[in-house]
Structures
1.
Amino acid sequence: MPRVPPLPAETAPDAVKSIYEDFGRQMSFPSPPNFIMTQGHSRVAAQGTWDVVRNILVCGEIPRWMKELIFVAISEDRKCLYCTAAHIACCRVLGVDRDTLTQLLEDVRILPEGKLRATIFFALKCSRNPQSLSDKDFETLRGHGLEQSEIVELIAMSAFAVYANILADAAAMEPDKIFQSSS
């Protein structure tokens, strides 16, 4: 049972409905998910989160499918059921194969692709304890060809995943049916 129920579009103020519509359209969802509708109780929170989703998750230099895998890894690590289900569904929509998702969920260390594995390890370390990041962690990313801009984007992506996990868990969001059918 959610602690903060979603605010349905039909009862939301026009400014919030506009956020829902933009979110759904740009994320290619058939309807706004519980994640944004729960925040709809606060136009400021919904708009701020949508701005972060659009600028950190959707845009940027790191491919979206890779960011979705990072989101799944962090959410699974933090035991956020809502975000794990939602971002597994996004991975599938973006064409991430089942083997990669299975490997990610079982043990990141078995991912065969070195750059992806290193990127996810860095993101996990950043989400768990950013003070523990070492010069070697950054050198590893650079060794895989990541530019400074991509490293900063990766740090922002890690922070955003933690932010989203906190929102989903604190509100006790329930996974949307559209995500449950994909997980």
2.
Amino acid sequence: MITKTISPKKKGKATELSEKVAERLFSLRNSLGYTQRTMAEKIDVTFQQYQKYEKAKDRLSLERAIVLCEKLGLPLTIFNENNAAAKGFAESGQAPFGSAAQGSKARAEEDELIALFRSVPRKSRKDFIEMVEKTAKLLSGKN
């Protein structure tokens, strides 16, 4: 948790907090294997604007942070300095923020599947998806 108060600086100067948020955005994006353009689309901003967030040139608003967390099914606490899941974000035990916070057994199973998918090397993910599709068809009797 961020304990000291960080006062905003003059326009154009990044605060310590905005730099931490930028670092978290960069780490999150890389852990998900997303491009800056993909992240920008998730929060409905231009690619250039997202770059500014990631470089701490502009501050990410709370509204945009909430939208991002909802779309990714992550807790808003990913931006917390002492979050134990800071390295991978997806391992957080806290319930996701907003509409993604289902709390059901199905949600836990979905989270487990997503974690497994993220553990697969990027070049093998297509094969993983095909395997899951074939298994689903086989188990549902839709050959």
